[in-house]
Amino acid sequence: MSVKPTETSKTRTNMRIVVACSAFVASMVGVSYAAVPLYQLFCQVTGYGGTTQRVEQMSETILDRKIKVRFDANVAVGLPWEFKPVQREVELKIGETVQIAYTATNTSKETTYGQATFNVTPMAAGAYFNKIQCFCFTENELKAGETLNMPVVFFVDPAIVDDLDAKDVTTITLSYTFFPHASEKPVAAVAEPVQDSNTL
Question: Is the pTM of this model over 0.70?
Answer without folding.
Answer: no
